[in-house]
Amino acid sequence: MSSLTEKDRPIVQLLLNTGTCPRCILRFCSVGSQMLYRHPYKDLMKVLKEFMKSNQEKEDTVCFDVVDPPCKRIRLEHPEEGPEDLNHNGALQQIPQVNDENTAMENSAVKVCNVCLGILQEFCEPDFVNKVCQKVNSADYQFTSFVFSVSLPPQLSVRERAAWLVLKQEMRNLGLSLAKDDIVQLKEAYKWIIHPQLSEELGVPADGKSLFEVSVVFAHPETDEECHFLATACPDCFKPAKNKQSVFTRMAVIKALEKIKEEDFLKHFPCPPSSPKNLCVALEIQCNNGAVFVAGRYNKYSRNLPQTPWIIDGERKLESSVEELISEHLMAEFKADSFNFSSSGREDVDVRTLGNGRPFAIELVNPRRIHFTAEEMKRLQQTINTSSDKIQVRDLQLVTRSAIGRMKEGEEEKTKTYSALIWIDKAIQKEDIVFLDDIKELKLDQKTPLRVLHRRPLAVRCRIIHTMRSEYIDEHHFRLHLKTQAGTYIKEFVHGDFGRTKPNIGSLLNRTADILELDVESVDVDWPPTLDN
Amino acid sequence: MAAAARGGAERYFTRWYKPDVKGRPCEDFCVLQHSNRRVICVITLAEAHPLLQSGKTIKSINYQISANCSRLQNKVSGKSKRGAQFLTELAPLCRISSTDGEEYTIYSCIRGRLIEVNENILSNPTILQEKPSTEGYIAVVLPKFEESKSITQGLLTEKEYEEVLLKRLNSSS
What we know:
By secondary structure, chain A is of the alpha+beta class. In chain A, 35% of the residues lie in helices and 22% in strands.
């Protein structure tokens, strides 16, 4: 399918006459050779015209052979030079100026293609490639591959349909068939042409799975209203728009085109489509890197630090937070837009986290830098640790998104150990608390604590206290070490929460108990992997 | 009034009072208001309430306050506590009768959704008398968010209540 044959002649003729560009013509002829599309616009035009003039008995493949070798030669001899050399004769200028430079080539001005509205014309040229690469380079991202995504104005689908209907009609009149499925999609052809050029200039390959995305949005305001007739023909395809965005999305338009009857289409839309005055415009060229994930474990040494910022009615109630103290340095190093902090459970403002610390993971959104060696991560960890005495981090490392799941499963399943400083109203002696050490697998029924009841559903939780170890201090104080199931409310186990946690220390000792201090001694999750820091 | 450090579960609650409810002398209630933004309130008997005086024995506690309404059937679901019975200040929570033939109605004292009533006092009425401000609470009520600040307007602060008690003492002596 790499060449034009006899049956393509009427297609080429018709499309040339109605103002369709050479590459779109190749698409409608189902030409599948990517390399052919990469030829300069002028050369393709020339070849098509020669094809039309050539004798009907001659082999047509000859045309393309003639064109190929010179291009190939240029590529081989000057590998470091860009596509500019290939196109120095054929570069498409803005429509008004074309005639000045290329009067010999065309009888009339180079029209903007009535099907692709210039996408396969101007926007395949080195000038545009340069513009994109300049934007990418100035955005200063670290990347090893790219994916190029393109958003095309919906009316292109409408015009494609219009051109195809005309062709279908013509072919029918000639007693020939026109297969719809073999027609090359516009977006596909565009990527065939532009990927190698982008790849060459950026120095990295195009990869559909790449995390670095360069995206371009094209628009053609001149023809925006061309889709509107579809709303009257297929009203149920177009849902009311949210946020003042246009109802005529690409998906909605395609859906309507599938539904609409041929006669209705022909009634409302000019077939063949008219030649527009202007090219498309590239509205935005944006770059985005996929998120990176940094994991570690944190210790919390302050009894006055929330895990996340504590802001009520726009007013900050307590200075700083665990997540901010860790993330601010990561944000600076990775140069990300924003972050999402998550951890394997959390502790209250007034609770310390000791031992190996609590596992956490931070998602850094749209980072400019993504590559960090183990050494650099170690240094980053040191920076965080020297900047604050309220928190410390360890085992700081890059992880994959899927690793986060392991951290969250720890939250539900793994055990935690605590140390609580307990006050008792009525005097106790050593003997009075020794029995606690012998209690194993104590089952608790905990109603949702009153202190969180305003934001959690009312429920009863069964939780287990695996072991306890008491340390007598004086007649009104003792320290209790406990190992509990994940999700146990320790404070409520001590003071009883109005009898809504049963049993509790008060009920076990037949007194009133209160908790003065609580520390997390360990979070028994073996993730992230321990590093030799 | 025990001014000693209120340790334990009550630590983060502020006490508000409603004395002589419905004109009945000394039938005082104490509303414990949590310090959180969306305040949860715990309805309890104030120490001056007749039921907490020595010599009184509780015969029965009944949460069925009318033919159609039992506070025990209150069911809430979800974070916003859908399905909760809505209470006004004088909505009855339960009726308690003592062995000497008296009957007392316990009132909500604040507007809001009924979250739960204390079923522990049904099985063990003595804790109502032994620990009226903690394990012996009557009910938990969640006021409407918009009304969080205004619910205490009809109630007395601890200091104001102390003055009421002082007046009672003086008038009876």
